[in-house]
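Researcher: First entry.
Model:
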Amino acid sequence: MRLDNLTALVTGASSGIGEAVTYRFRQEGARLLLTARREHLESVCGSDVYLPGDLRDEGFVARLAARAADVYGTIDVVVLNHGLQAGGRLTEMSVDKARDVLESNLLSSFLVMKHFAPLMPSGSGSFVLISSRLGIVGKPEEVLYSAAKGGLIMLAKGAAIEWADRNIRVNVVAPGLTATPVIEASIQRQEDPEAYRRFRASQIPLQRLATPEEVADAVLFLASQESSYVTGAVLPVDGGYTAF
């Protein structure tokens, strides 16, 4: 029970990595505050608290923090898993779409960190930001997404130094291609889904996609006291993709 009696916020909790993190944290004894955009979340159970909303809206983030303070008093762990992936050639992307990618991934994370760091107990706390392999390396037609996810890494590194005197640790998990429902749906839209899956897997040294559970295990490590002397770190969970 590595998170026994700790309180944790998980954003983007409705599916994929967020759902896997929620399940893993619940197994380890955490009391959970969950958020996503869906009005209802079927995976909510027991004493979980779910509040839907848009993390780009500072008013909503403030209400979320107020709910956390009211229900739990303090928050020990925050997992920032929400985001938006939108591709397209750099010269063809509209400024509105670019702004949406940056706000959905980077600025919304800043808002959550701004409002939730004051709720962390004196002398402890852990933020885990979910970036991407594309926050470490570039990829054509994913330039703004890479900029946003790379920005998350630097947001985490700066915050890790700024909050070190409070012993608030800030770390990053950078997943590779992961078999989430969104990715699986994109594979199934291809003319030959299995051939496309093999092609994508062939670009990864371990020759397969990650599972959401494998990413959740890395998040658990950085959230728990097992990583008590780790801050400002980036942990790739990408099958070796960024080792090239």
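Researcher: Second entry.
Model:
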Amino acid sequence: MTVTTPDWVRHAVFYEIFPDRFAKSDAVHKPSNLEPWDAKPTNYGFKGGDLVGIAEKLDYLQDLGVTALYFCPIFASTANHRYHTHDYFTIDPILGGTQAFRQLLDSAHARDIKVVIDGVFNHASRGFYQFNHALENGAASPYLDWFHIHGFPLHAYEGKHTNYDAWWGIPALPKLNTDTPAVRDFIFEVAEYWIKFGCDGWRLDVPGEINDDSFWQEFRARVKAINPEAYIVGEIWHEGQRWLKGDQFDAIMNYQFTKACIGFFAGDKRDEHLLTGAGYAPVTTLDAQSFAYSLNVNLGLYDKAINDVQLNLLDSHDTARFLSIVKHDQSALKLATLTLMTYPGAPCVYYGNEIGLDGGKDPDCRKAFPWDKSQWDTALRAFFKTCIALRKKYRALRDGSFNVVYAEDKCLVYVRSQGDEKLVIAINSGAAAATINVVVNGMFQDGQMLQTVLGKKASYTVGGGRLTGITLPKREGIVLRLIT
């Protein structure tokens, strides 16, 4: 079948936001018992971030270069992360409610910023109406077939063995029975409702646990019938060919890219403790050749239309932050960010990475954004802006071809081409400066000149099918553009 994916995603720079921790507004009424904004995050505490506060920070995001937002769940829930959904048709009142989301969505769209929301459809919560009905009424409830129940009374709280299917056996997360037609119709209605409301797509939480291709095929058909350009991206931590044939998801969260970047840019100098339990573990140390191999294998798994919209990321709300994994080696973060912005796919920045926000395993990776600029690494943010601007300026970096032309020791060079527009990305992950000669025969003609658009000002002329004497400082990368 012909694979079609949303065109806008090819040109997007995503920004993942954990709504409780990004920004809050005085315009939204707050409960009294909130954690201090700057206090260490906890599993159960709330910081009081809200959607109006995010809308008020759109200038910041637009200045950074962001063109799409991915929100962790925003529906009514009693968890700070909101993966315990109570009401799929209501925005959490602590976030400001549905009207606040309307305001945010309209404000984002007025700036041509897309909004993708999180759909948690494998499981709900103890407070979900249909499950609460079964909890209160036992065998007399008409909603028993919405779940996988194995006995009564329901053991919904700790202390007794859970007698219904729950995600990872967690009593608070009863698994929905998607074989039941009423459940399927309910989820599809939710999917349609928020796309009609104006959302630009769905990020699907643990979709592989709904082990039913026909379910996701119908989900796609329902969503795309309303908005053919809606983006559907699944949280799949491994290779995802099953879901990426053009009839289910548009993309997955590309954790294989994450894993490769950690292996190459951090090498052996990474915090292994922060990687234990991660969905992409174990991580292998890579040299340039094996890193190039990993990048190419990843691209070889899918149609180019899929590769161009894969959600590439260095970290997320489910992992320790990249900066902490690499033991605060800022050069590793910068090299990985340059790769993120110049590799095929849609790059996604986890909120705060651009100003040096660190964090260990959940919940530490979900710190509140420090809006006191004295706490920012402004030079790092400037580097993020530069890399994002390069991606937005050159189409070759968004949907051009990708060819590795040099991979030795700690140096990697690849070419992105789109028609006459050609860029060379050269990266040195080593601890010493390097001077390299790169064979570019067949990609460039002798006599053509390339100049730096990132890095120390320099120019190189192709001769004998080579670019010779490319100078790469230690732990830095450069980008060259063909002068036509």
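Model: Note on the second entry: The longest strand covers residues 401-408.
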